[in-house]
Amino acid sequence: MFNIERWQEIFEAISKNRLRTFLTGVSVASGIFILVILLGAGKGLQNGIEKQFENDAKGIIEVWSEATTKEYKGLNPGRQIQLRNSDYDLPVKKFDDEIDKKSPVRSTWGGIVSYGKESGNYLFRGISSDYVYLENATIVKGRFINNSDMIHNAKVAAIGLKVEQDLFKGQEALGKEILVNNINFKVIGVFTDPSGEREESRVYMPMTTNQRAYGAGDKIDAMQFVLNKKMNYEEALAQSRKFTAEVKALLKSKNVIAPDDNSGIGVFNSVEEAKQFYDLNLYIRLFFWWVGICTIIAGVVGVSNIMLIIVKERTKEIGIRKALGASPFSIISMILHESIFITTIAGFIGLLASLALLEFVGPLVQSEYFRNPEVDFSVALTTLVLLVFAGAMAGFFPAYRAAKIKPIVALRDE
């Protein structure tokens, strides 16, 4: 039940000790402020790194060749392994029911791409039709390479938005002929990529055309796969590890590489990388929670100390109340009201200040690995409830001590 006299007592006590109450409130408000800012920063790191993961399809597995490091079957170490179409066909045929997307890759760095009087150095790459999904690219004009282009060795190309802007200067690129290392290709599509200009400064063409036009025979540089989706992360991780191990063993056997040679065939498994990212992000967030909670505890300890001082100052008053018949519960309630009021108001101010800072300043702080720091409402509400509970605990022990004071002892207090 609302007791106006109790609240009058609380405001009177606060007004008599304004500086002390203000400093106590600042310590509590700063605690909740720091906690929410740290949680927002943690979310900003998570958003930034997750954005980087959008650069490629989730669960991508890439396989490439390297130099061997061990002698095997009479062959010396240091052999540079060359992947070929037949190497790509092996896992495609064996794991066809497990593979969702796939593509061989052959890259040429610093190729000369020109249109009219404009030219520039860009990476051009032979790929298959699935590569648009593997790269997580979006076609904004025309279309991407398709299976018909592969079958007919079509001299067509999909170019990145940056290439279009550099070479065509606002003109329509679709249907135009570009020179890629002095060979004509017709532009059939323009794409964008989540990673921005780096990936948009590329030219993609059918693998078959790339190999024939540039005398590569059946050579490829790498191969990329995305496996069928699983119900949960642990299943996906187990599936990807099994797949990479078997593909690696398959290619080592075909290319006469020692089974225990860690080189020769290189593998990048983004599913494993994702696990490392999520583990790291969890540790960062736990650390931020720990620092923030420790800061709140420091503020709450300050409230508890203030309550002890208040109890000491009001010992004689408490003795008189008990002598007049006040119950221990009423004494505890009186002290708790004041501690909860101070921590709640100070915490609410700290919470509003931190949310306002994240709302207005957060969007201005953007980098490659830090984006949109924010704290969702449920987390903010949890911190406020945590703070009110901490305020109650900060006042309970001094209040309990006050309730146990004997009236005769309290009346003798000076």
UniProtKB/TrEMBL annotation:
Coiled coil: none
Membrane topology summary: Multi-pass membrane protein
Pfam family, one: FtsX
UniProt keywords, alphabetically: Cell membrane, Membrane, Transmembrane, Transmembrane helix
Domain MacB-like periplasmic core: 21-239
Subcellular location: Cell membrane
TM spans (from-to): 21-42, 287-311, 331-357, 377-397
InterPro entries referenced in this protein's UniProt entry, alphabetically: ABC3_permease_C, MacB_PCD, Macrolide_Exporter_MacB
Domain ABC3 transporter permease C-terminal: 292-407
Family: Belongs to the ABC-4 integral membrane protein family.
Name of the featured protein: ABC transporter permease
Organism: Flavobacterium lipolyticum
